[in-house]
Amino acid sequence: MAQFSQEHLELLADAGVPVHDVPVDRHAVMNPLDELKYVRRVRALVRQERANVFIPYTIKPVVFGTFGARLAGVGRIMPMVTGLGSVFIDNVPSRRARLVRGVAVGLYRTAFKFADTVYFQNPDDISDLRKLGALGRSTRVDILAGSGIDIEQFAEMPLPETSGGRPRFLMVSRLLADKGLREFAQAARIVKSRHPQVEFALVGPADTNPTAVPIDEVRSWNWITHTPWLDDVRPALAACSVYVLPSYREGTPRSVLEAMATGRPIVSTDAPGCREPVMEGTNGFLVPPRTVEPLAEAMQRFIDRPRLVEEMGAASRRIACEKYDSRFVYDPMLRRMGLLPE
Fold first, then answer.
1. Taking a C-beta distance cutoff of 8 angstroms, is the pair 211, 249 a contact?
2. Helix (H/G/I), strand (E/B), else coil: 188
3. 3-state class of 287 per DSSP?
4. pLDDT tens profile 40-62
């Protein structure tokens, strides 16, 4: 149960929520026998729990979990598409990526036929899946404001005192190329060459994804302080002035919402999912994905105008409270489930 901390498991237990570990390799190429086993286990667990609503997220649970829930007779299936993943990022995909994308589109199309409502985190994912034929016009869809954020857990934090008032930049991400990791490293090197006292931090573990950046390469970036893992990211956010995520594509990045809730301005990309939380010039800046110089220049603006950190950080906190508070994000889904009045 590596995806849940012991603290989370205890909170679920205290709330009377049963937890079942159903292993699934999110990176492995789809193996029919493995996926069939997963379908059967989901079906058995759904029957055991007598579930009448099934809410899967990430591609394999959305597809194969939906099949299992359907076989178990669940009447209301409500998948959450929290991003399309690396296979949908490249505009000119390789032959292997085209094959995997084609399979994914077909599976999505079949699974969505059984859905009551499919929930997305940005309109680009809806549009792209419709263009690819994975999402029919008759399928009911809705958009949630990301995964929501606990604005009390991620409370506003004072900005750190830094040497000469220079901002500290932070990126939190698995070590993946399509998170814009290499662009962050190269842009940080440019800024560091101009301002040697400016600090850059990276928090994130190695990964088995095909786009993973080797850990030895990350260790070679001696101008960036790398922390492989934190159980609680809030101390890292408290120590930073500006949060950076130059990802190629997201659903809505939770790490950005966490940074916003603590009162940090954002530098991200004008890409699906990444652009949603950022109001250009209000709580941060957007740069073209896969670019280095514009990213460096966006960070440079906070060095040239230090007051932007405080002003945009306050705007981030306000936007997080008004739009991304988890107490309200899931209201559309709860209404659809009949747990809130329409």
1. no
2. helix
3. strand
4. 999 999 999 999 999 999 889 99
As a whole number of angstroms, the distance between CA 240 and CA 258 comes to 13
> What is the pLDDT, as a whole number, of residue 1?
36
Token pair belonging to 158:
């004072």
Alpha helices in the chain (DSSP H): 6-14, 32-49, 59-60, 66-71, 95-112, 123-131, 181-194, 215-219, 234-238, 254-261, 293-304, 307-323, 326-329, 331-336
Of the ranges 57-61, 92-96, 240-244, 334-338, which one carries the lowest mean pLDDT score? 92-96
CB 217 within 8 A of CB 287: no
By CB neighbour count within 10 A (0-12 exposed, 13-18 middle, 19+ buried), where does 130 fall?
A: middle
The predicted structure's pLDDT at residue 27: 60
- Domain annotation for the chain: domains and CATH numbers: 6-143 (3.40.50.2000), 163-323 (3.40.50.2000)
Q: Tell me phi and psi for residue 120, to 5 degrees.
A: -120, 170
Distance between start and end Cα atoms, the chain: 36
Torsion, Cα 122 123 126 130, to 10 degrees, reads -160
The answer to whether 316 and 283 have CB atoms below 8 angstroms apart is yes
Query: The pTM is what?
Result: 0.91
Per the model's pLDDT, the better-predicted residue between 15 and 277 turns out to be 277
d(CA 220, CA 215): 9
Q: Which residues of 62-92 are buried (b: 16+ CB within 10 A; e: fewer)?
A: bbbbbbbbbbbebebbbbbbbbbbbbbbeee
157-190 pLDDT, tens per residue? 999 988 778 999 999 999 999 999 999 999 999 9
Residue pair 290/89 in contact (Cβ under 8 Å)? The answer is no
Q: How far apart, in whole angstroms, are the C-alpha atoms of residue 182 and residue 47?
A: 46
Mention every residue, 6+ apart, whose C-beta is less than 8 A from residue 210: 27, 86
CA distance 309 to 264: 7
pLDDT above 90: residue 94: no
DSSP string, 208-265: -STTBPPHHHHHT-TTSEEES--S--HHHHHT-SEEEE--S--SS-HHHHHHHHTT--
